Amino acid sequence: MQIPVIKKLVEHYSLAQLQSAEEAMLEEQKPAIEVEGKDEGECLTHVLASIYIKERMEQGVAFNQALRDFSQRVRNSIS
Fold this sequence. Notes:
- The chain has one domain.
- It is 72% helix and 0% strand.
- It has four helices and no strands.
- α1 (3-12) packs across α3 (40-58).
């Protein structure tokens, strides 16, 4: 998970564009937006993180806090 890539996605794409990218990736298709990452799994992680952060930001949460919240969810899921 690369924070600069997630930040770029959040800043440059709408929630709808990110959700469309997620759907395309889950169907093993190329998304309409450019998503950086080492492999398909990392790209999907970046998109999922961006969606989560965008949704939290729409609720009034700052980017940094939303990113921390997402990171905490990931840590909790793997421990």
